[in-house]
């Protein structure tokens, strides 16, 4: 390994980091370069708790799902913002083409707190019907994308289908 070049963390290393970090206390499985980690999180002390599931395969981007409560039911008929899929509810936590998440980054220090931050903006969206987490969203009718104003997008990451997630990482120095 050359100095200054970060090496990708293996699924085993990510699993050990998840297991050892109290912020994401949970349980999971590790098999053949892939892991699944289930944990409970809450965006604030006044918020409900959510059952989250993180799936990671070495060489791929992590995927994050909310298993309970059902976010579609909580949305009461509204289309969920900032997700890759409604069912199962796969969260959009970062902008992949901006390389906001990299394989040498620890899941317990990025994806897990970004999940809580996404849920914070989700709960605000439930109350206001306005997504304040920043990111890129498809235009209502027609091609192209627009960049939201507000929170800068340089601090998040995932896959880019229907929209991106919170524009600021939890723990990025200014909190939420």
Automatic annotation (TrEMBL):
Residues 133-156 have a biased composition (Basic and acidic residues). Residues 132-176 are annotated as: Disordered. Residues 27-138 form the Type II CBASS E2 protein domain. Pfam families: E2-CBASS (PF26395). InterPro entries: E2-CBASS. This is Type II CBASS E2 protein domain-containing protein.
């Amino acid at each position: 390994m050359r100095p200054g070049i970060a090496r990708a963390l293996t699924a085993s290393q990510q699993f050990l980091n998840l297991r050892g970090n109290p912020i994401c206390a949970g349980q999971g499985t590790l098999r053949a370069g892939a892991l699944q980690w289930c944990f409970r999180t809450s965006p604030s002390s006044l918020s409900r708790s959510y059952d989250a599931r993180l799936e990671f395969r070495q060489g791929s981007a992590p995927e994050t799902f909310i298993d309970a409560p059902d976010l579609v039911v909580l949305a009461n008929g509204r289309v969920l913002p900032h997700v890759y899929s409604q069912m199962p509810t796969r969260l959009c936590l970062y902008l992949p083409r901006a390389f906001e998440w990299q394989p040498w980054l620890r899941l317990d220090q990025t994806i897990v707190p970004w999940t809580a931050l996404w849920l914070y903006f989700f709960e605000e969206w439930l109350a206001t019907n306005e997504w304040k987490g920043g990111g890129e969203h498809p235009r209502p009718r027609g091609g192209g994308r627009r960049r939201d104003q507000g929170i800068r997008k340089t601090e998040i990451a995932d896959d880019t289908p229907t929209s991106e997630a919170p524009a600021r990482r939890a723990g990025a120095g200014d909190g939420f």
